[in-house]
Amino acid sequence: MDFIGAYSPVHFKFLLEGFAVTLEVAFISIALSFAIGIIVGILRYGQIPVVSHILAILVEVIRNLPLLLIIFFTYFALPEIGFKLDKLYAAILALVIFESAMLSEIVRSGLNSIEKGQIEAARSSGLTYLQTLWHIVLPQALKRMVPPIVGQFISLLKDTSLAVVIALPELMNHAQIINGRNVNYVIPIFLLVAIMYFVVNYSLSLLSRKLEYKHR
Predict the structure, then answer these.
(1) Residue 144: burial class (beta carbons within 10 Å; 0-12, 13-18, 19+)
(2) Whether the predicted model's global pTM rises above the 0.85 cut
(3) Phi, then psi, of 63 in degrees rounded to 5
(4) Using one digit for the tens of pLDDT, what is the confidence trace for 81-111?
(5) d(Cα 75, Cα 177) in Å, to the nearest integer?
(6) What is the DSSP string of 6-28?
(7) Rounded to a whole number, what is the largest CA-CA distance in the chain?
(8) Domain ranges of the chain
(9) CATH of domain 3-214
């Protein structure tokens, strides 16, 4: 093992550049999948004829597919039907598709956890269905959804490493490039990569606990 050579300023800078791409992909994917997940979750909760059933089928199909397969599809299969995407956008699209399905199920479950008596009381007081959903159901459900949603965000950040299969220049890709130069760098580099992932994910975990405690 060569810790000194592995942790040279050049290598450290190279890893940080890859980590910046990882965080960029994760941030964009989190924002888009969160928005889509909430919309899909609400539509499924609303039991809209036909729409809810179609969304349920799509969500179940996506949730039961490997994310790696979806990444391959967005990067290698879409160009075959005329949609060629850059590696960055292919990775983001794959993550958004997969995570939106996962988050929509969290949202739907959170909405279903609200007692029916509250909904009936709100409707009997003159509130419309949308007003009841917006003012009564959704605020309470979001509080309960914080831990699983943040947990899903943590999984998403870790899942960005799968984009290494399409040579996206993210953290794992840069780590492999460095390791290819010298086998003595493997353990030091992977140790540093593990620490970088841990710091960000643990920070998200602490944020989740803080938010959960705040809303109790």
Answers:
(1) middle
(2) yes
(3) -65, -25
(4) 888 999 999 999 999 999 999 999 999 998 8
(5) 21
(6) HT-HHHHHHHHHHHHHHHHHHHH
(7) 71
(8) 3-214
(9) 1.10.3720.10
